[in-house]
Amino acid sequence: MAVVEVADEAKVDPSAKQKPKVNKQFRDRNQIMLARLGWRFTTPALVIVGAITIFPVVFSIVLSLSNVNITGNGFQLQGFTFSNYSLLIHSSEWRYSLGFTVFYTFVSVFIEVVLGTAFAVLMERLSKGRGPMMALLLLPWSIITVISAELWQYVYQGTYGVLQYLINSVGFGKPVILGTPTPAIIAMMAADIWKTTPFVSVIVLAGLVMLPSDVFEAASVDGCTPWQSFWKITFPLLRPTLSIAVLFRILQAFGVFDLPFVLTSGGPGTSTTSLAILGYKVMFDNLQFGPGSAVAVSATLLVLIGCLAFLRAFRTQVNGGDL
Amino acid sequence: MATIEMSNMKKRYPNGADVIRDVSLSIAEGEFMVLVGPSGCGKTTLLRMIAGLEDITGGDLMIGDRRVNDVSPKDRDIAMVFQNYALYPHMSVRDNIGFALKLRKTDDGEIKRKVEEAAELLGLTPYLDTKPRQLSGGQRQRVAMGRAIVREPSVFLMDEPLSNLDAKLRVKMRSEILKIQRRLGVATVYVTHDQTEAMTMGDRVAVLSKGDILQCDTPQNLYDHPVDQFVASFIGSPSINMYSAQLSEGAKFLNIGGESVELTDVAHISHPSLASYANSRITVGIRPEDLELVDKGTPNSITATVELVEALGSELLVHFNTDAKAVVVEGVKDEEETILEASGAGVARIEPRASVKAGDIIGLRPNPAVMHFFDVNTELAIY
Ligand SMILES: Nc1ncnc2c1ncn2[C@@H]1O[C@H](COP(=O)(O)OP(=O)(O)OP(=O)(O)O)[C@@H](O)[C@H]1O
Ligand SMILES: [Mg+2]
Fold this sequence. Notes:
The structure holds 2 protein chains of 2 kinds.
Chain A: H1 2-18, H2 25-64, E1 66-71, E2 74-80, H3 83-89, H4 92-125, H5 130-142, H6 145-156, H7 162-169, H8 181-210, H9 213-222, H10 226-254, H11 258-263, H12 275-285, H13 289-313, H14 315-319
Helix pairs in contact in A: 1-2, 2-13, 3-13, 4-8, 4-10, 5-8, 8-10, 9-10, 10-13, 12-13
Chain B: E1 4-12, E2 18-27, E3 32-36, H1 43-51, E4 58-63, E5 66-67, E6 78-81, H2 93-103, H3 108-122, H4 137-149, E7 155-159, H5 167-184, E8 187-192, H6 195-201, E9 204-209, E10 212-217, H7 219-224, H8 229-234, E11 241-248, E12 253-256, E13 259-262, H9 265-270, E14 281-286, E15 291-294, E16 302-311, E17 316-321, H10 335-340, E18 345-350, E19 361-366, E20 372-375, E21 381-382
Parallel strand pairs in B: 3-8, 3-9, 6-7, 7-8
Antiparallel strand pairs in B: 1-2, 1-4, 4-5, 9-10, 11-12, 11-14, 12-13, 14-20, 15-19, 16-17, 16-19, 17-18, 20-21
Helix pairs in contact in B: 2-3, 2-4, 3-4
């Protein structure tokens, strides 16, 4: 249903837009025909995308707004309600999860962008061996998160973990890393940063390589030190690239699931329960489909709002409008 | 304020290309030095070496009494106008011009005053708060100029700073640049393709070809006493007519094509070495204004067929063809231009109201006193 609506709207749109230009009627008609042809070609793809993306999204929204009753053979929707959401807002668990997810997202994305940019700047200076270096850097990124999380288990684990052994051998006792809230959160962020810094690096490096070299020459003639040249030229010119990297990372980090799922299952207690973990637990451990969907939908809405706000604040940069 | 002293400067790029071969040149305090030469001869490279943007592979570069071979660009106290502007895309015109001053922690009021003064001079006042991408090529070029002049550095380096301006603005900017340069008294190296610009602006002009300076002298001396065929044909517009010729009866007559021109004593006095070329083949160069329109068959004249007449108001440019063999100097002009010119072609610059038209057969009498002679083998001028 939704698909058809979208298609109809867009079909009307081009002609509506071009109405003022009456003198170019012939071209307009051609364009409309082209647009129609375009829709015809993309419709099959849109239908599939609709079936596998739009349907679950819409269905989640419906679930989150319904009284869901589990029965012997599936579940029933019994009427419209906001109670799932009010349940969330009054639940300290949800509020903690939200706080944790926001904190986790901000801190890890910030560190990743700083480190990633630093790596990119270093790599740009490498005239030789940039390729192998990049391949090496991308290794963590290319490992599926669930697997890399298992690898981090070897580092953080309580009985055979490498880190605990190291800390012990320097004489600081045997800290329980994943079993204590603060170390567990830090450990998880470290694993995330390890994995995604390369991703940021590669994006930023691509941006760096595109910057015009003569501008930097002009800056050096004008008297810039390398440090000034970074902050006054490189950084502002890189802002569109950085914003895109940040946007990608926020979207990913906000939905963090696999790292806490493998490393801590959201514990100890609820200290590493991200919104995604919370939604999963509520839905599939407690079989509360209504509240579970409400967690998912609210998380999606919140990250959407966050991204829109970010885009608005950095609008010119993302469009390259400032250049 | 400082002098620039280049001794035996060389540049070899990592790919093995010797772009600057052996350049020695000294530029006095406050001097306006113009570098001219055909495209690809190494002008930009030489300028970048002075700026410190390109390593110097051999020789010494002194600015003032400091050897700066290994000094970074920011410490050389130079201002440079780049061939492709290199403006900071994210800064307004105002910030572009004031950037260097800001880096020096100049007081804000002072920056504002200087930037606005420069903008006024360059006609950029209405654009002070726009970004470079909203400007035309010519406006960008002026911003690049502005960025250099607010600096008051010890050396100005300018790489074809007027190439994108229209003819009228170019003439105006020429004199503005000169005025600024005179006022600041800063040694300046100015690169250009345009030999009119070179002639009108330079205290001295250095002619560069394939990484070597062929001649460096005042514009008039370059024009009157070129050291070789290359300089002779590069300087002057329209360029000098050069023909293969034969001295006969010792060095009394010069046979050009089928014609014979008597070399008067004046020619021999100003070119004493000509005697040693008695009865041999040489190349003769005659500037377009040194050809006088006469009736066909007049003694000491060359018979020519008029191909095209360009009326410029103040003069006529008569493009003609003769049966003499033209000598084309390699590398001076673009290839297409050379192909267009038939062997034996030439240009004469004559008084505006003469009656000549395409197809006429005319006589052109060269003035022996101001002819140029060149050795056929070395291509060097004979004096
Ligand atoms: N990085 C480089 N590596 C190798 N060769 C180069 C490099 N840069 C320039 N060259 C060569 O050096 C020569 C001189 O270049 P340069 O830019 O100095 O010429 P130019 O005189 O400024 O020409 P134009 O008048 O067209 O600007 C050219 O033949 C060019 O191909
Ligand atoms: Mg150049």
